[in-house]
Amino acid sequence: MRFIHTADVHLDGEPARLAGFAAVVDAAITHDVDLLIVAGDLFDHARVMQVTVDEAIEELRRVPCDVIVVPGNHDCMDERSLYHRVDLTVAGPQVHFFGEPEGRWHTIDALKLAIWGRGITEHLPTFHPLETYRHAHDEYWRLAVTHGFYVPPEETTTRSSPITSGEIGALTCDYLALGHWHGFLDVSAGDVHAYYSGSPSIGNVDIHVLEDPSVNLVTLDPERGVVVERVPIALAEAPDPQLAAAQRLTAISRD
User: Fold this and answer.
1) What is the pTM of this model?
2) Does domain 2-254 have CATH number 3.20.20.80?
3) How many CB atoms are closer than 10 A to CB 88?
């Protein structure tokens, strides 16, 4: 089976960021994948306007396979979370949102696949995204999805939502899909293939690969194991900024 892993879309009404997400959906369709993973920060903040939410849901409706979404630090699942008013599953039964504080497993029997997902509930140094992971589903391929700050071996940090190399190596999964870092990064440890996909949106001013936004195309093969490819995505031309601004003002007045 094959899936696409993305993260840090940061939808906020900016046309370039929506174009990035649309390009991810196009890639999922073009590569005929079995799954699309969004590892946090689909939205940039809790105050996004309804028009932006509607645009995201319309893109999710276009996805012909299962979709996994977890909250990141920008769309954190706290008391102010936009997910208290936004239900992504209205886009269709293919969308699975992981908002539970402890995380959860989800199985797709047709793919012999088990997915553990946990988003951020409080972006603090005391919150460890992987600490609630529990082993399960020996008979299936196992994926884990979360969002946080990678800490290399022999290093410590005071950053929020830390994910250490030791924690990654202790997992019993085949692939760990991560979000928070805006560039492609391999942080594999032990037998676990762990990657950041980077952001697909050239609208993110701190993105590390401005000229080449991409997604991770991952193949799970019984003979070859886990194969990770970095695949460039084709960005459609973003709408005219003045037109987009007028559309947002119209949405504000309508709301």
Assistant:
1) 0.90
2) no
3) 19
